Amino acid sequence: MSDFRAAWLRQLRKAYDNLLWSHGLSAPPVSLGLMKSTRLWGRWLEEERRLVLSEALIMEQPWPAVLGILAHETLHQLVGDLTPAPIRRDQRPHGPAFQSLGVRLGVDPFYLKPAVDLCGPCPRPWPDDEAAPLPDRAGRVLEKVRKLLALAGSPVATEAQAAMSAAARLLARHNLDLAEAGPAEQTLEYRRIPLAARRLDRRLTLISHILSRHFFVKTIFVPGYDPRTDQENHDLEVLGRPENARLAEHVCLFLLERAETLWRGYHRDRPGGGLAARHSFINGLLTGFDQKLEAGAAEAGSPDGFSALVPVRDRALESFYRRRHPRVVRAGQGNARRHCPESARAGRAAGAALTFHRPLTGATGTGATGAGAARPAISQGDRP
After folding, report:
1. In this structure, are residues 206 and 286 in contact, taking their beta carbons and an 8 Å threshold?
2. Which among 45, 50, 39 is positioned nearest to 9, based on CA atoms?
3. Do residues 125 and 194 touch, judged by C-beta distance below 8 A?
4. What CATH architecture applies to the domain 2-112?
5. pLDDT tens digits, residue range 81-125?
6. Is the full-model pTM beyond 0.85?
7. What's the CA gap between 198 and 221, in Å, rounded?
8. Domains in the chain: boundaries
9. What's the number of CA atoms in the CB half-sphere (13 Å) around residue 298?
10. What proportion of the chain, given as a percentage, has pLDDT over 90?
11. Which residues are within 8 A (CB) of 330 and not within 5 positions of it... i.e. 6 or more apart?
12. Helices 96-104, 63-82: crossing angle, 10 deg rounding
């Protein structure tokens, strides 16, 4: 692990610079360093203008937790740099100036606490079964929508369409009621889905499109990093009300698993075609599932997704998203791939017939360190 210390510092510098750039901030130069401490996760050494993080933090905790501690220490630095001296003398280390700047920079409230305990309950960066329980109404709506989407796999076309339309109406009505009730930013959350993808392909962008179009969330691909292998990658962040974010997370993991499983079944019966057939089948499958959701929305009376009204009126979600990601860089579309019409048609048919199942309990759980986190499979065919 020690061989990667220089690489870790480069990644920390990149994250530090991006935090300031994203929020249009500038400050006097700061040096970054590592320390051996197992008692402290990080420190801001004001006299030396040096920000140091624990090597144990980097080796033992998930990368999002490392970024959370980095943000905490950066806030200490920025409070000192940006707050006038007379005001700063009257401030507690984690007082109002620290807290308000943390909110402005979109730092998770967990990392704004005076003592950040990563060994106890903390924001889990990966999907898990230990999330805080939802309010009664939200929990009931989420459960009903899951059941209706499962019924949408009925072999009887009329029953499947009726279930899809009912799910669309229920989810749209619930979110429209919440949006019209006024800002409720404290009910919003973000969930990071671990793709660990070396590059973003059409499959992943289609899944992101499906989630943001049909499940009342906003999505963004965020940079990830594995300190144990010095590999940069991409994860997907989903932002929205807890019931929407958890449903979207469920759908994402479901689609990742189904795409691989159904492709293997199709390829076993029709070998050959290589990567072109695989990509065509999976992209067709996701397109077919998207059209299935769209048909349910149209049947429910909302042709522009589950409800065209909700995104317009839900100002809280837009504000939450912009605070976490004030500057968004659009990723390139990548190189065009060869298309296999036969595989694409088969994929569309499979997508139109997808049944939405509940995930296996504990299938995606992870411990506090994240070392044993179960991640959705990313085929070697998708890696450079």
Report:
1. yes
2. 50
3. yes
4. 2-Layer Sandwich (3.30)
5. 987 766 666 677 888 889 999 999 989 888 999 888 887 655 655
6. no
7. 12
8. 2-112, 136-369
9. 7
10. 38
11. none
12. 120
